[in-house]
Amino acid sequence: MPRFAWACVPGFLLACTFAGAQSYPSKPIRMLVGFTAGSEIDVIARMVAAEMSEGFGQKVLVDNRSGAGGTLSTAMGVASVPDGYTLMFNSVAHAAAPALYPKLPFNALRDLIAVSQVSSLPNMLTVSPSLGIKSVKELIELARQKPGQINFGSAGVGSGTHITGEQFRLGAGIDVVHVPYKGVPEVINDTATARLHYSFAPIGNTLAFVKDKRLVPLAVSTATRSPLFPDVPTIAEAGVPGFDFDQWYGIFAPAGTPRPVVERIAKEVARVMALPEMRERLLARGAVPRATSPEAFDRFVRSEIAKLTKVITQGGVKVE
């Protein structure tokens, strides 16, 4: 082939990539969620997917593939064709995975593209009314009186609710037992019936139980109080200074996904998060809309991985 013809190839490929991005999406998109149906991440993923479907003119279909703290769905996403038609809707659990699972079949940074954060939200610490506990300090005192006899539940090893619980255990200096479940709904039900002594869960999942007085809210995990529960203190205020845990959610794509396609998805997420009705629905669940650029989300994810790796390593947290 003549030299000038080879010289045209890069330009041709660039043009093809641009054309592909311009026509994206031309078919339905699969959005993998690594946790069970009914969990808060699933609820919010479906809310976002429905609005993205409207904007794209193509269905964005949520596909729940739960297990191993969300890493099973991530592995599926990483192994898929990097064309923008398989996305991963993940949480802070993604940042904890490298420290918890040293033999992951993927690299949490190299094998994924951080597309956009979606929301920020606190986990709420709750107990059953039957326990008679009214504050974080009372819960900590009970745990210290009964080392190894008090338990807490989570949506599974490596989930955000698990890591919140481990951070609380370390910060409070208590000896408690972790009980992993398949999802948040089961955790909340068993906390309400006192099969579990306490648990952490996204506010959206606890709302109905707290309103019906089937759960007692003791504190929220973030550094600031939730507007939905202004009288409920933060854990830092309630007895564990410096405590701050954000159960954030965001969208990822497999490495190799064309940059124009990534930017198109991020732009759509920003549009969806700016919709007044979406903001109202998220805020009503205790979540704060937080769309970001791919660059900003990448920096955030890297900082979260570094922070949680330190927490997990120092605390000796291991996969049971």
Number of domains: 2
Low-confidence segments, ≥5 residues, pLDDT <50? Answer: 1-8, 12-17
**Share of helix among residues?**
40-55%
Total of DSSP H or I helical runs spanning 4+ residues: 12
Q: How do the SSEs run, as a string of H and E?
A: HEHEHEHEEHEHEHEHEHEHHEH
Q: Please identify which CATH superfamily of the largest domain we are dealing with.
A: Bordetella uptake gene, domain 1
Q: Determine the CATH topology of the largest domain.
A: D-Maltodextrin-Binding Protein, domain 2
CATH architecture field of the largest domain: 3-Layer(aba) Sandwich
Strand percentage lies at 15-25%
**Structural class, please?**
alpha/beta
How would you name the oligomeric state of the polypeptide chains in this document? single chain
CA radius of gyration is 21 Å
Spatial gap, N to C terminus: 59 Å
Task: Report the biggest beta sheet as strand number plus sense, adding barrel if it closes.
Answer: 6 strands, mixed
Kindly report the average pLDDT value. 92
